[in-house]
């Protein structure tokens, strides 16, 4: 399935567009200002059921959040590389 | 696996070049072939004449280091002409490419990661 | 043959991305690639024949028309985004040969491409 990369903040319409694209079994990775989504309590409701959510740990921590503030799985760059290997398609 | 990362926005103003460099390093460590395609204003990242403050990172140098580790650095040639980046200014190990090379990378890469503007 | 989608979300005139999306798309024909272009969000403003970046000295969108015709590059726009700006069918420049996709169809539509590049 697809890895969808969301790099813009929740205030940007393109982020909503990308989240809407995610089909069950797709994975969404928040990076850059997209990681602000990871701190939103309702983030799981923004995607269809069966979509897995991840955020880039480095970008999340750099914005002053604590790991325990994240509503989604945090991955480092190595984890991002692993997601790229596993998902046959990238939408970004 | 061959992974290409396309960047579109300028360095220093945006995080995108940093994202691309860190991701390229992680992919290299995992044994992948990595290409970076610099499109539009991101071509400024290949200008070796940049003079950032001492406390800041030197993005063109980091790109050159990546190319020494085997990363292909492609610069959109027309984008570079538009922005006055000449042959004498670009970092060693990078090449002026164009849309035909972008097409080849899109066709041949197993994964194509575009960092949208 | 692989399918590649260039999706544009940025508004025309204010930035160059629509032109860059088409320049990229036309370059794909050198490989065994089949490109398409999709306008979403404010990018749909480009389809009105009255949308003219050249009025403020920028590159015209119309420079893409002869290549769209030559290569028969498919151009899509999202119905709900066209509706949001009240863009009527008779306002759309015929040279786009515009195809419409609805918001509901978008996930499957975008997933049907092998590579996706968003501007």
UniProtKB/TrEMBL annotation, chain A:
GO CC aspect terms: sulfurtransferase complex
GO BP term, pick one: tRNA wobble position uridine thiolation
Protein name stated in the entry: tRNA 2-thiouridine synthesizing protein B
InterPro entries, sorted: DsrEFH-like, Sulphur_relay_TusB/DsrH
NCBIfam families, sorted: sulf_tusB_dsrH
Source lineage: Bacteria, Bacillati, Bacillota, Clostridia, Thermoanaerobacterales
Sections of the chain in a coiled coil: none
Superkingdom field: Bacteria
Signal peptide stretch: none
Pfam families attached to this UniProt entry: DsrH
UniProtKB/TrEMBL annotation, chain B:
Tree of life domain: Bacteria
Protein name: tRNA 2-thiouridine synthesizing protein D
PANTHER family listed in its UniProt record: PROTEIN YCHN (PTHR34874)
One GO term describing the cellular component: cytosol
Alphabetical list of InterPro entries matching this protein: DsrEFH-like, Sulphur_relay_DsrE/F-like
Lineage of the species this protein comes from: Bacteria, Bacillati, Bacillota, Clostridia, Thermoanaerobacterales
Automatic annotation (TrEMBL), chain C:
Lineage per the UniProt record: Bacteria, Bacillati, Bacillota, Clostridia, Thermoanaerobacterales
Alphabetized InterPro entries for the sequence: DsrEFH-like, Sulphur_relay_DsrE/F-like, Sulphur_relay_TusC/DsrF
Pfam families referenced in this protein's UniProt entry, alphabetically: DsrE
Domain of life: Bacteria
This protein's name: Intracellular sulfur oxidation protein
Similarity comment text for this entry: Belongs to the DsrF/TusC family.
């Amino acid at each position: 399935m697809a890895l969808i990369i969301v790099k813009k903040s929740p205030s940007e319409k393109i982020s909503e567009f990308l989240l809407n694209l995610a089909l069950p079994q797709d994975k969404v990775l928040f990076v850059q200002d997209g990681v602000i989504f990871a701190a939103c309590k309702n983030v799981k409701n923004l995607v269809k059921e069966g979509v897995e959510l991840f955020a880039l740990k480095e970008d999340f921590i750099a914005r002053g959040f604590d790991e325990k503030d994240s509503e989604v799985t945090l991955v480092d760059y190595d984890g991002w590389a692993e997601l790229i290997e596993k998902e046959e398609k990238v939408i970004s | 696996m061959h992974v290409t990362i396309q960047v579109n926005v300028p360095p220093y103003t945006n995080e995108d070049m940093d994202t691309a460099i860190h991701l390229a390093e992680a992919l290299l460590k995992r044994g992948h072939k990595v290409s970076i395609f610099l499109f539009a204003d991101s071509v400024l990242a290949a200008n070796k004449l940049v003079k950032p403050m001492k406390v800041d990172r030197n993005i063109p140098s980091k790109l050159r280091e990546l190319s020494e580790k085997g990363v292909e650095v492609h610069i959109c040639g027309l984008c570079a002409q538009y922005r006055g980046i000449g042959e004498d200014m670009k970092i060693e190990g990078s090449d002026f490419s164009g849309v035909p090379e972008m097409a080849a990378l899109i066709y041949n890469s197993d994964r194509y990661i575009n960092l949208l503007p | 043959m692989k399918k590649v989608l260039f999706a544009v979300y940025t508004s025309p005139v204010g930035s160059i991305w629509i032109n860059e999306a088409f320049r990229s798309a036309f370059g794909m024909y050198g490989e065994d690639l089949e490109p398409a272009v999709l306008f979403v969000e404010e990018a749909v403003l480009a389809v009105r024949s009255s949308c003219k970046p050249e009025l403020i000295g920028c590159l015209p969108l119309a420079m893409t028309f002869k290549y769209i015709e030559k290569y028969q590059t498919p151009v899509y726009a999202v119905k709900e985004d066209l509706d949001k700006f009240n863009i009527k069918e008779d306002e759309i420049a015929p040279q786009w040969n515009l195809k419409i996709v609805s918001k509901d169809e978008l996930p499957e539509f975008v997933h049907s491409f092998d590579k996706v590049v968003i501007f």
